[in-house]
Design brief:
Belongs to the DapA family. One of its GO terms (cellular component) is cytosol. Keywords: Lyase. Helix 7 links the parallel strand 6 and strand 7. The protein has a single domain, classed as TIM Barrel, CATH 3.20.20. Helix content is 45%, strand content 12%. With 304 residues, the chain is an alpha/beta fold. The protein has an 8-stranded parallel sheet. Helix 1 packs parallel to helix 9, helix 4 runs parallel beside helix 6 and helix 9 runs antiparallel to helix 10.
């Protein structure tokens, strides 16, 4: 399946049972909610998906199940976050066999590669697969920035097609567009900046709170792209306190708690993460319940 790299791509949480195994029923329930809300693709095994705690076998199982459940309705993108180039290549090669439609690539993990090393890491993976690739550029959390000059090299590969723009600098959307035109698709990777980046020309949104609020997320995207900015702003103002939960180191626990409150998931996480307790839990729950108490009526956004 080709990927247009446009629209809303949820970075899905990984659902676990109380015993710590993959919760296939909860995964299916959330996936169906995303599809019904109108998402344009899904991403598995990202930071929000607790990638660092998943085995390779579990990641492969998630891809296979998602491909079977979605039946080609939207593309399935697998995130690759590895310390070894060899292992990243192996996963990329196998992803196509499992039915994945594309890949999202983080820079090398655990080693702070320089620009040359980082570019070569991405190039080596791109050479190993025909799958379309989105580069995840998040220097805030992963300490490596993919610069414009590095993208100049990377875009020589036809299958490197998009960037998850998470520098938290809205102007980078314009820098990328000025330098590369439409050669690269730009997807906002920071929930709190989505409207600003979409207005400035981003093509899509790799979203986090969409896991708990899929309809609201897709509605904002479609309203912005339809030019109905007043409606998009109003909805985004309601959403912002929730979206800010995506900016915390405990974003996994925060968003999973939101999924519980909207009936789309469970709180189960894998150690070293632990469920929220005490004052922190009360604070996050208050944000969620306050928002749900005034949850807005949505327009018929799917008709846009």
């Amino acid at each position: 399946m080709n990927i247009s790299w446009q629209g809303v791509f949820p970075a899905l949480t990984t659902k676990f049972t109380a015993e710590g195994t993959l919760d296939h029923a909860a995964f299916k329930h959330n996936l169906q909610a995303q599809l019904e809300a109108g998402v344009d693709g899904i991403i598995l095994g990202g930071s929000l998906g607790e990638a660092s705690t998943l085995t390779v076998v579990e990641k492969e199982e998630l891809v296979e199940r998602a491909v079977n459940l979605l039946e080609g309705k939207v593309p399935v993108v697998l995130n690759i976050a590895e310390g070894s180039t060899r292992e990243a290549v192996r996963i990329a090669e196998h992803a196509a066999e499992l039915g994945a439609s594309g890949l999202m690539l983080l820079p090398p993990m655990r080693y702070k590669a320089d620009d040359r090393e980082t570019a070569e890491y991405f190039k080596t993976i791109a050479r190993s697969t025909e799958l379309p690739i989105m580069i995840y550029n998040n220097p805030i959390d992963y300490k490596i920035e993919v610069t414009l000059d590095m993208f100049e090299e990377l875009l020589q590969f036809e299958n490197i097609q998009a960037v998850k723009e998470s520098t938290r600098d809205v102007s980078n959307v314009t820098r990328l567009r000025n330098r590369f035109g439409d050669r690269i698709k730009i997807l906002c990777g920071v929930d709190t900046l989505a409207v600003e980046e979409l207005v400035m020309g981003a093509d899509g949104w790799v979203a986090g709170l969409v896991c708990a609020f899929p309809r609201e997320t897709v509605a904002i995207y479609r309203l912005v792209k339809a030019g109905r900015l007043d409606e998009a702003r109003t909805l985004f103002r309601w959403f912002l306190p929730l979206l800010e939960l995506d900016l915390h180191p405990k974003l996994v626990q925060y968003i999973k708690l939101a999924e519980v409150h909207t009936g789309l998931g469970t709180e189960h996480v894998r150690a070293p993460r632990l469920p929220l307790v005490g004052a922190e839990r009360e604070r996050v729950e208050q944000i969620i319940t306050d928002a749900l108490a005034v949850r807005p009526q949505l327009p018929d956004y799917l008709a846009l």
